[in-house]
Amino acid sequence: MKYSLCYTPPGSPTLGVAQAPYRQMQRYWIERVFQEAKQPLGLHQNQTRHWPAWQHHVALTMMALHFMLAAQLEGHETIPYPSFASLKLLLAQKLRNLLQEDEALLAAIHKRAAYTVPKPAVKPPT
Q: Which of 16, 37, 65, 111 is spaced 20 to 30 Å from 87 by Cα?
């Protein structure tokens, strides 16, 4: 027999017989999303010291989760519901193949260098 405790504030309507199990079943899907975000996407690999850094980490992880879920739904005709691990492998292989071509590798290096080049300091008008 399975049971769970539920808190309802005083004065609120009680849960019906059909609504209480429905809410309990919804918890599985929420936990499943966090499990998918932790294991293959690295939600649990947070090594930040400040609140904004944690927010950025979680936001990027959730965007990656959205991308992976969209890729799962989009590609289910060719591969029946691919796992996150197989999508990660496909994406890594695709990126590796792109960077094996000389032009794509040079373009990636130039694009990266454009972000790391220090910008000249602008003197304030006198």
A: 111
Degrees, nearest 5: CA angle 91-38-79: 35
Per-domain residue ranges for the chain?
19-115
Evaluate whether 57 touches 63 at the Cβ level (below 8 Å). Answer: no
Q: What is the pTM of this model?
A: 0.55
DSSP per-residue codes, 89-104: HHHHHHHHHHHHSHHH
What percent of the chain is predicted at pLDDT more than 70? 79
Tens of pLDDT along 52-94? 999 999 899 889 888 888 888 887 777 666 777 777 777 787 7
Cα 76 versus chain centre, distance: 19
Q: How far apart are CA 2 and CA 10, in angstroms?
A: 25
Q: Answer yes or no: are the C-beta atoms of 40 and 34 closer than 8 Å.
A: no
Single-letter code of the amino acid located at 59: A
